[in-house]
Structure formats: structure tokens, C-alpha cells
Amino acid sequence: MTTQETDGHGPEAPGGRPGTSGPGIFQHCSADQFGINSQPSFSRILGQVLQSMMRVAQEYIKFPQTTEEIQSYKEAFYNIAGMPNVLGIIDCTHAALIPPARSERAYRNRKLYQSINVQIVVGPYLNIIDVVPNYPGSCHDAFILRNTELYARFQHGVYGDSCLLGDNGYRLSRWLLTPYLNPRTREEERFNRAHKRTRAMIEYTFGLLKSRCRCLDITGGALKYKPQTVCKIIIACCMLHNIAQNNNIPAEFAQDLREEIGATVETQEVKQDSQAVRQHITAHSLQISCV
Fold first, then answer.
1. How far, in Å, CA of 117 to CA of 84, rounded?
2. Is the CB of residue 164 less than 8 Å from the CB of residue 176?
3. Residue 125, class by beta-carbon neighbours within 10 Å (0-12 exposed, 13-18 middle, 19+ buried)?
4. Which pTM does this prediction carry?
5. Residues 6+ away with beta carbon under 8 Å from 289
6. β-strands 163-165, 86-96: how paired?
7. What are the start-end ranges of the E strands in the chain?
8. Lower CB density within 10 Å: C or N end of the chain?
9. Residue 272 in 3-state DSSP?
10. DSSP-assigned beta bridge partners for residue 288
């Protein structure tokens, strides 16, 4: 998990209206709920709580480490739709913020509001096992991945034959499997169906996370904090989500969340060994029928 901080500026809601979360509505509501009499007092307490949570974040957001943990993740993912050797599912989601005026362009995403583009990897239990909240909304998902410790670990073979699943916003590699853009055979279509069913876990996890933490969705407004603080808030929300999942705490799925639509790359230049991995799985490994 990466917890470095960045400079940046926050987003506007669609239509050009600034969001109102942060030191405004969210802070006032939370202060009233917990009996804190002043906004400055709440800001000070919030900073202290976030700093304490950052010190233990890696205890709550972590990749499987032991052979037993890795195998259990692979088996759980396999049981969804027959995809072998899957250790996690990767994608990005946007958390709106109101940034410093000098950086508004850098934080404006393809949906035309300003945000942090948050890279998340989820496990088979709707748990978050890696989060990178350090890049402004204009950064492409694939660019973020290439600049992470996670990328280096997979490139160096730390996880053996394990792989991640991603959408076509990522480049196909031997450890990051994407769907066929233009499936030509029944086997390739079956691979895409299995991929889609398995990858749906991350979309559902995003929904749960943002239902629990409405400050992370544009429908809840835009966080009006410094980007460094927003990064910490995102990590804290992921920690609280995992705690809730580990303790079977139910979440009411909000129906008004903005739909997440992944970016698509129309053409890809990939190495032959990457294609061979996907083709081998397509031809030999999918044993479960995908309806």
C-alpha cells in the first residue's frame, strides 16, 4: 500500500458547481454528532485521528503474504467463474475534491470534475488489499500502475504465477489479464464472460466503500481539504471498509452513486508471452460454465 502525499486541487461538481464537503457540511455534521462545539476543534481532532490511522494502515490494508493466504485467495476467485491464479482485481475510482486554484487543470478528470484518481486492488472477500491515493484525476489508470511498488513487485515475479484482473484501460501482461477487445471464438467469449463475472467484484466493492463513506462519491459533494489530507481520508475510509467487512457489518447499498465506467484502450501493443498466458487460460483453464 502506498501512502505518500501529493499537492493538488479539488473538483467541481458537474455543471460547474463546486462541491461542498469537507470543512463545510461534513465537518459541521460530524462535529454536531459527536458533541464537538467548534469547527477548529474538529479539524484538530480529525488531523490527529488521521495521523494515528496512517501509522497502522498497513495492518488493515495488505496483500496476502503466506502461501496459505495466497492459495485461499486464488481458490475463492476461481470459485466465482473459473479464472485461475487470480490474486486480486485492479481498477481506479475517483474521489472528488476542491484543490488549490493553481492545480485545477491537473485534477480535472475525464468526467469534467476535479478529483484524486484512486487505484485500488480488491480481494475475493470484497476487501481492499492495496490502495494508491496519490495521483490527480487527470492521470490515466495505466500510468498510475506503472509508477507503483505493486507494479515493480509483479514485474519482478514476487507473486509467482499469480495475476491481477483489469479492464482494457490497462495493458495486457503475463500478470495482468484484460478481456479480449474483439473475441473471435467461443473460447474467447467464454474467457470474457468469466473475466467480467470475476471483475464485477471490484465494482461492487467500490459501491460498498462509497455507500459507507459518502464523502468519496461526487454525489456526496467534494472534499474541501488539502490534497494531502484527502489522501489520508481515502486511506482511512478503506481501512474502515475492511474493518466492517472483517466483522460482517452490513452496509446499505446507496442507489444514487455515480456509475463507474472504466476507460477502454482501442489498440494495445503487448508482448507475445502476455498473449500466450491469456490464450492458455482461454483454451485450457476455464472449467466452470459462465452463463
1. 29
2. yes
3. middle
4. 0.82
5. none
6. parallel
7. 86-96, 115-122, 128-136, 163-165, 176-177
8. C
9. helix
10. none
- 198's grid cell: 470475476
Residue 25: count other Cβ atoms within 10 Å of its Cβ.
Answer: 15
Residue 163: in which H helix or E strand, if any? Answer: strand 163-165
Q: How many whole angstroms separate alpha carbon 194 and alpha carbon 78? A: 10
DSSP class of residue 19 equals: P
Cβ contacts of 79 within 8 Å, gap of 6 or more: none
pLDDT reading at 50 higher than 90: yes
Distances in Å between the Cα of 260 and the Cα atoms of 62, 151, 277 are 24, 23, 28
Q: Which residue is associated with the grid cell 467480467? A: 196
Q: CB neighbours of 263 closer than 8 A, spacing ≥ 6?
A: 110, 140, 141, 167, 168, 169
Amino acid at 98: I
Secondary structure of 60-126 as H, E, C letters: HCCCCCCHHHHHHHHHHHHHHHCCCCEEEEEEEEEEEECCCHHHHHHHECCCCCEEEEEEEEECCCC
Over residues 69-114, the pLDDT tens digits come to 999 999 999 999 999 999 999 999 999 999 989 999 999 999 999 9
